Sequence to fold (359 residues):
Amino acid sequence: MNAIMRRALTGAVALSLAAPLAACGKEQQDAGAGKDAIGLLLPENKAARYEKFDRRIISSRIASLCLECKVDYGNAEQQVETQKRQFDALVKKGVKVIILDPVDAKAAKSWVDSAAKKGVQVVAYDRLAEGDVAAYVSYDNEKIGRLQGEALLAALGSRAASADVVMMNGSPTDPNAPSYKKGAHDVLDGKIHKVVYEKDIPEWSAATAKKKMTDVINSLGAQGFDAVYSANDGMAGGISEALASAGIKNVPLGGQDAELPALQRLVSGAQAFTIYKEVRPEAETAAEIAYRLLRGKSISSFTDTTAGNDSKSGIPARLFKAEIVTKKNMKDTVVRDGAVRTDLLCADLASECKSLGLE
Fold:
């Protein structure tokens, strides 16, 4: 073998050995890339709270707890497959703690279980994902439904016993939706005349809620119902538009989330109530728990109860309380807490805000 051939062969062998070593190096880099990262996966961006509040508060709290920590964020925009890809990508990077608000709680089970076997701890946030989750932070969702029912009865007043009610419930893929519905029924059943129409609205779609409400109006007539229960404020917006288009007024409508458009409808009288769930304590607690799990610390001081999904019981949990907001107590709730700026709330409602002492 001449010198040229020997050099060529030596180079080829070197290259062939380098390739698997480089690949191995990349795998090691991916596996360690998430050691100071916390994943945050939120379900959608139609509801204003996720981008404006949850993401910002969680990221800020983690940054204050851990200078070297990074929040690896993804929003699924209501797509299960998108969220699965985001989740799988975090696991592949080596992220060991993921805060997950699932688009579809049942669909998430296989991802959560698979990740748990690899040492990944999932903090279920706002919605309880199925599978082997490490902790859960949310609100008492049946209680929220009961608050909605109580607020609707209060809005109906003396008309409640003879009232016919339309119920637009939340998305069937959201594990919180059945709890809201159950809580509302626990209060309303036997206290109103009857529920004349009830529908679960996929993806909490305001457009679908508006269409269904329009169908109800066309079917039952403007006098065919006395109040409307909406599981959240986004759908209440669509329902309010359908009522306004039909010229229907003085029909109590309620929602949940205390979003700005809903609060403006409270001021104008188009909506009777909403449910205020202060995002900050929920978001900051999720951040604290995620950080502690990342560093192998106890989370017992942040989880004062337990919860269970279909596959696991005894999940360490923290469930916060919510409260009813009407235009009468708005000043002492959402405005007091800085959840809404009065200049935005009253931009086109100056006289109404003045009468409520909001300016």
Observations:
- The two ends are 93 Å apart (CA to CA).
- The mean pLDDT is 91.
- The CA atoms of residues 252 and 328 lie 15 Å apart.
